[in-house]
Predict the 3D structure of the following.
Amino acid sequence: NAGVTQTPKFQVLKTGQSMTLQCAQDMNHEYMSWYRQDPGMGLRLIHYSVGAGITDQGEVPNGYNVSRSTTEDFPLRLLSAAPSQTSVYFCASSRTGVNSPLHFGNGTRLTVT
Amino acid sequence: GQQVMQIPQYQHVQEGEDFTTYCNSSTTLSNIQWYKQRPGGHPVFLIQLVKSGEVKKQKRLTFQFGEAKKNSSLHITATQTTDVGTYFCAGNAGNNRKLIWGLGTSLAVNP
């Protein structure tokens, strides 16, 4: 019973590099989302998806891309990493939307130098 | 824009003392959720409140949703060291797509 799985757990990038944070869930949840968490800023929504093939922007989408080709996977792409993207990233899913409880992954701690 | 204010930002208590965190929304909410995040961990869902004036209990935790559905509180009776962490409220303004998150209350408990 894996729940929401995020990889990698830690990553260090140089400015300008690109990478993909992986998120997979095995609960057949329709809704998936990406958050970043910074000290004193709480949880900020980056992108979300209400189902396969559907994505939309959250509060802080700039510099990030997402796609949802399957129900299970929701990868987050950093196109050209910047030090301002140093953060802890959480993927979260729920059965139907935010009226259902969110299940969070363990997070990815990203440092951009 | 829509906001949820959460107070206090930090709370330091002696084990056995009570603790309360409050959330106030700038807009009427269809429901509100509470999450707990242990240090170094990820947010974990605690409860969802939907009805005006609703009160729910989970052992030593009591959750309330205001009559106007714009405020909520979490009260912990007789705190224990296992209660340490950050407690977040998150409200749904009705679109079922985005939650409005409070900034969290960090609770420290002295044994």
Remarks:
- Chain B has a mean pLDDT of 96.
- The longest strand of chain B covers residues 85-92.
